[in-house]
Amino acid sequence: MKTGLLVITVLLVAAIPAFAATTPTDKTADQIRSFYNSGIWNRAVKKQANKAKAYLIKRTHGRHAAKKPALVLDIDETSLDNYPCLNANGGIPYSAGPYAGCVVRFDAPAVKPVRSLFRLAKDLGVRVFFITGRPEAIRDGTLTNLKASGYRGRYGLVLQPPGYSDPSMVPYKSGARKQIQQRGFTIIANVGDQQSDLAGGYSERTYKLPNPIYLTQ
Q: Which of 9, 57, 113, 180 meets the CB 3.0–4.6 Å disulfide criterion with 49?
């Protein structure tokens, strides 16, 4: 790994609450690989994305269409898939070092059903906001990764601010959604792979994606 990426990785693991609050699931490496390789993970993600699509269509048509509708997406293991990198670099089961190293490679592929949801939202005039536990310091790399994996056009990107120290992501993420709604948007759907992505309100519907690799408070 290049020296610059190594430094960033060490800083992420040492200083970012999202990493400190993340622990492995009780799944073995073989169980995790089977979950992905069998297609179970992809089918489960697609099922949830399709539910979110149906609700977006419902809330953007007719007399009761939402004013300034918005969709919130998490990034890691929701919009971008770190599993290929983790599996190839000692990150299965979850380990903070390999995970941080995969994040800062900025080459994770899209989670295709979620990218399809993103594109539908754009077509329907729904504003998309990414709210992620990634720190503000890696905004440029994150934007590069999102664009390269097919998330293009106008959207909002909210990253964890410097100085955030709560061991849970819930206050930060729910607070970010509250700020979006205070701008006049109606968050009609919120999609994430962790309960901490979804807890705390400020969304009409929530859609939980499976993550057999790690849990984040």
A: 113
What tokens appear for 21 in the block? 């609050």
| Paired residues of 183 in beta bridges | none
DSSP alpha helix (H) spans, the chain: 3-15, 17-20, 29-37, 40-58, 83-88, 96-103, 112-124, 139-148, 170-182, 195-198
Q: What is the DSSP letter of 183?
A: T
Residue 88 clears pLDDT 70, i.e. is over it: yes
Query: Between the CA atoms of 14, 199, 157 and 81, what dihedral angle is there, to the nearest 10 degrees?
Result: 70
101-157 per-position pLDDT tens digit: 999 999 999 999 999 999 999 999 999 999 999 999 899 999 999 999 999 999 999
Tell the burial category of 179 from Cβ atoms under 10 Å away from its Cβ (0-12, 13-18, 19+). Answer: middle
3-state secondary structure 75-112: CECCCECCHHHHHHCCCCCCCHHHHHHHHCCCCCCECH
Those residues with Cβ within 8 angstroms of residue 107's Cβ, 6 or more apart along the chain or in another chain:
85, 145, 148
The predicted model scores a pTM of 0.93
Plot region of 163 (φ>0 → left; ψ -120 to 50 → alpha; else → beta): left
